[in-house]
Amino acid sequence: MAGLKLKHVYKVYNGGVRAVNDFNLDIKDKSFVVLVGPSGCGKSTTLRMIAGLESITSGQLYIDNALVNDVESKNRDIAMVFQSYALYPHMTVYQNMGFSLKLRHEKPDVIKEKVLKAAETLEISDLLDRKPKELSGGQRQRVALGRAIVREPNVFLLDEPLSNLDAKLRVQMRTEITKLHEKLQTTFIYVTHDQTEAMTMGDVIVVMNKGFVQQADAPVTLFEDPTNLFVATFLGSPQMNIIECDLVEKDDKVGVRLEGVESNVVWLKDNTAKQIKNSGISFEKKYLFGIRPDHVSVSKTGIPAHVEAVEQLGDETIIYTTIEGHKQHVVLKAPLTIDINSQDDIHIEFSKEKVYLFDKDSEHSLIGMPSYNKVPCSIKDNKLVIGKQELELDTDYTSHLLARVKDEPIFLAVKPEHVEMESNEANVELKAKVEFVEERTNYNIIYASMDGVTPYLIFRSDKNRKFKSGDNISVYLPLDKMYLFNKDDDSLFSREEIFENKANCHVTNKNGKTTIKINGGDTLVYDDLGVEDGDYEFILKQEGTQVVFDKKNAKGIEEEVCKVATPNQFLKVSCYDEEPQHKINTIFVKIKGFEEYVTLVINNNFSVYKMPVFKINITPDNFELRKL
């Protein structure tokens, strides 16, 4: 049996096409993990990288604590079940199931024992003499599963295995695969675009979009506490209602004023109002209000709505309404017996206990459990200062920080699920005071204040831990899960270790020109820099350099970025890796003569994967010379 760990995994194809971006996930042994998302989100590519069918551009993949990036697929002890079944048409079911064992040169009696056992488990013992063309879709799927089972792998990978089956058979096979996982007690990783499959089968659901992991959690948590608008609207059928709104305040209350029905304010519960006030959310902006159809009801008073359509589903009724000033339908679920017809005028109301609020720009959730805590902080003498507390940072952590971390307002980002209750060598202590607690199905959410800090620290707690308002507590932040960001949400913490950008060089002055010869590398020429001849260390600053684009890669780039005025001030570099953010791109490059790879921060308008070898323009402001 085996667990898996994916750390900062990227997949970039030729031309800089990013299929998977910074994928991080710990998969526990014997768990059932489902990757779900729309077509093209990167889920199948991720599965193929785990299988070894696709190379990993950067990052690390561990199986049972062993790094397997360069291990061949056949040696990873993984079995994969494909969407197309991939059965050999000329072989019988028995031969198909035993073929991989035959390639391993297993003894015939061993092959027979394993095939018969797998066939019995899958209830296909009576099909062993048939060929694939004589089987139904469901039977072929069972054979494909059986072929994987006989290998007794540590990990099963299943890539949309039910997509070719009809609706009834899909439901049946969902149950069969879940029962198979319980029986085999091994790790399953399953890819689907069907949210119903994901929610009913997985212990952990990984929601992906555009190559990024949006949220990874238990099904009920994703439904109750989606961290952003995409997750909120992707899961649930019918999907969550979203209405543009703004916030209003009256006395100690906070309410949501919906677009088009300004006279009807949805007043939020007291704890939600506290969270909004404490987080510094502006009351001058527009937001997105969300509520699921399950939590919209027909009432005698409330918001006027016009019924556009009614769907009778046998056990419930789905009602599609329109409200003034809102283009999209507002959908609600009602009992089957409700007497409402198309074109009726009704009133609806929203449960204030079940509302959501999203930032219109970032689309992050603003109430309940956030995608991450964003806490203002600063770095001082290798300590992280949060309000009136100082957290000691070791050199391994600080060696991953960009230089600009000391020059601008920064924020600590830590996910609620990563706040720990117990101390160990890999985390740091933070003191807080419990303000209030909210119960969820599988855990409680704790809202805690910190001395000198405005936003709450929000984290999860097991149901068996009893916190109450006013408790003074200690929590612990794991160093490997603490990230620092600037105000633009650009990460200032690099996954790569950052070295001083230095190389030995020789400086000579002649005819009013200063020539800097990088030992073993390129030569730079400048007007007189006012330094003596001799040997120096050349220290290249992280920021200020400009990438020199060729005509092909300059398309769409601002003209002033492409201009380079002075010749002989270039260094040729080659791609090592990059970490693109919102406004900046941290690139890691190799430059001849430099001791380690070089870290540079440039505008996020360029990918090293589009132009792996290029030049950078070095002005006198971009470097320092240190006399040897």
Q: Overview of this structure, please?
A:
The protein has 628 residues and is α+β, with helices and mostly antiparallel strands. The chain is built from 11 helices and 39 strands. The protein has a 6-stranded mixed sheet, with helices on both faces. The two termini are 56 Å apart.
Report the structural category: alpha+beta
Strand tally, please? 39
What is the global morphology? globular
Instruction: Please state roughly what percent of the residues sit in beta strands, choosing from under 5%, 5-15%, 15-25%, 25-35%, 35-45% or over 45%.
Output: 35-45%
What's the end-to-end separation, in Å?
Answer: 56 Å
If strands are numbered along the chain, what order do they take across the biggest sheet?
6-7-8-3-9-10
Enumerate the spans where pLDDT stays under 50 for 5 or more consecutive residues.
none
In round numbers, the mean pLDDT is: 90
Largest sheet: 6 strands, mixed
Question: Over the alpha carbons, how many angstroms does the gyration radius reach?
Answer: 29 Å
How many helices does DSSP assign? Answer: 11
- Bin the helical content: 10-25%
